[in-house]
Amino acid sequence: MTGVAGVKDLSNLSATVLGAGVAGLASGIALRRHGAVVRVLEQAAQISEIGAGLQISPNGTRVLRALGLEPGDFADAAQAVELRDAAGRLVTRMELPAAPGFFLCHRADLIAALEARLRGLGGRVELLQRAERLEARADGVALHTGTGGCRVAGLLVGADGLHAVTRAWLNGAAAPVFTGQVAWRALIPGEGGQAAPVAQVFMGPGRHLVSYPLRGGLLRNIVAVEERREWAAEGWNHPADPAEMARAFAGFGGAVPTWLRAVDKAALWGLFRHPVAPHWHDAAGRVALVGDAAHPTLPFLAQGANMALEDAFVLADALASASAAGGQPAALAAYQAARRDRCAAIVRAADRNARAYHLRPPLDRIGHTVLRLVGWARPDLPLRRFAWVHGHDVTRA
C-alpha cells in the first residue's frame, strides 16, 4: 500500500503503536492511510473493552469520517442533552445539530470498528505484548517487552494510557492528585426503541449522574459521580456494590431510582488529576504520545476519546507534512505545538464542569434559574459556549 489518494506518502516509516484503545487504533489507521508500516502492540490477550458508553462530538465525528469510518454504522445519533435537577425536573434542554453529528456509542463498538478498519488497511495487531522499557538507539527506539522480545521502530507511538511507559520515559514520574470525587459506571437493560437518544445529566449537591441509551436502546449507560473525602483506587474496573451506589444517589428523582434498581453490577474508580505532559516527544523524533498518555482528563466534558481521535489525525498529518530538512523531530514538535494548548484548555474546561454540576444550596437554585432563563431566551447559548471544542476540525487545519 502506498497510501490513500491525496494523502502524502509515509511508506518508508515503520511505526509501532503501544495500546489498542481508541488512541492507539486511530493512530495506526491515520499512519497506515499515509502508507506507513504499522503494528499495534496490545498487552491483553484479546482486544476487548471493559468500559461502557462514550459520546462522540462533532470534532471526533469529523476525524472518524476522514479515517474512513461512518459513526452512524456503530453508534446512535444524539438528539439533545438535558440538564435536570436532583429531583428530575428539567432545567434546560440543548438540541444537538444533526450535522456533522453527536453520537452515543458503546466503547466496545468503537474499538471493534477501529480495529476492523486498521486490519482492512493492512495494519497489524499483536496481542500479549506488554511494554517493559525503552532504549534509544541510532536506528530508532528499542522497545523491550515482557516476553523478552525487543522491537526497534522508526517511530514509537505511546497510546498506552496515563500510566504509559512512554510517558514516564519522556517526562519522569508525576504524582496524581485525588480530586475528592469517585465515579460509578454501570450498564443496565434499556427501554428499547422507546428510549430517545438523549443524554441526561441529573445535578445534585456534591454529586451528579449522567445516563444515555446505547445500541438503539438495548442498553442504558450510567456514570454517577460523588464527592467524598475517602480515597478510592485509580482505575476503570474496580468492582463495586450496587447497593452502595443506590444509597449515594437515594435522594435523586425522575427515572434515576428505577435505573439504580436495575443495576446488578457496577464499577467504581477514584478520579485523579494528572498534569498534561510537558513533553510529548523526544528530541530525536522517535517517540510521540497520544491520548491519555499525553493529556489525561476528567470525564466531565466527554472529550477523552475525541481528543485521542484528534491527536491521531494531527500526528500522522504532521509526519506526512514534514520537510526534508526538519524530518521527524520537526514533525513531532509541530504535532505538540498544534495540540498541547488546545488539550490543556479542554482539560481545564472539564474541571470547571464538575464544579457546575455539584452546586449546593442556595447556589444550586440560583444556577439552575439562570440556566432556565438562558434556555428560554437563548436556547443555542449553552452549546455555543463549547463551540471552540465541538467546532474544531483538525482534518482541515
Could you explain the architecture of this structure?
The structure is a single chain. 32% of the residues lie in helices and 27% in strands. The protein is α/β, with parallel strands linked by helices. It has two domains: 14-78 and 103-175 and 274-354, FAD/NAD(P)-binding domain; 177-273 and 357-384, 2-Layer Sandwich (D-Amino Acid Oxidase, Chain A, domain 2), CATH 3.30.9.30. The strands form four sheets. Strands 6-5-14-15-16-13-18-17 form an eight-stranded mixed β-sheet. A hairpin with a 2-residue loop joins strand 14 (198-204) and strand 15 (207-214). The chain is globular and about 60 Å long. The mean pLDDT is 90.
In the residues, how many domains can be counted?
2
- The CATH topology of the largest domain comes to FAD/NAD(P)-binding domain
> Which consecutive residue ranges, at least 5 long each, have pLDDT under 50?
none
* Largest sheet properties: 8 strands, mixed
Q: Topology, please?
A:
Blueprint: E1 14-18, H1 22-33, E2 37-41, E3 53-56, H2 58-66, E4 76-77, E5 80-85, E6 90-95, E7 103-106, H3 107-120, E8 124-126, E9 131-137, E10 140-145, E11 150-153, E12 155-158, H4 165-171, E13 177-189, E14 198-204, E15 207-214, E16 219-227, E17 238-240, H5 242-248, H6 256-261, E18 266-273, E19 287-289, H7 304-320, H8 327-357, H9 363-377, H10 381-384, H11 387-390
Parallel strand pairs: 1-2, 1-12, 2-8, 5-14, 12-19
Antiparallel strand pairs: 3-7, 4-7, 5-6, 9-10, 10-11, 13-16, 13-18, 14-15, 15-16, 17-18
